[in-house]
Amino acid sequence: MEFNYLSDKLKELKIISLIFICIALFSCSTDQGRKVVGDQLSVYYDLPQDEALAEQVAMYWRENDFLTNEKQDLRILHGEDKFQLLLIENTQQATKELPFEERKLLNDLKNDLQENIFHKTLEIVICNEKFESKYTIN
What we know:
Helix content: 40-55%
Strand content: 25-35%
Number of strands: 6
Structural class: alpha/beta
Strand order of the largest sheet: 1-2-3-4-5-6
Number of helices: 3
Order of helices and strands: HEEHEEHEE
């Protein structure tokens, strides 16, 4: 009897361990939720009502020849009084050393997107591959 009790407990422990391993693996997924995908570009968004914005940003990227042969990920965050467009940097250059010319180009991009697509205050946020903020253009 004692052997069966230990055997049953060992089975329960294995099942629980397997469940925790599965949860850990799925939580490590890089998927950020809802997204619009085209070619090498993915535009992620959190709120269902932002799908049209994500599509417009993707079209803007295509129409302005911002698409490259490399994977690009963008993310739209919708706040109460502003939007944030998160861009993943593609270089290892420290963003606090972002040259003036690049900051000006990003600011021009922000102004154009704000006026023509978002129609609300917009910040462009340069991020790492996990969408963690490194530098903000506001």
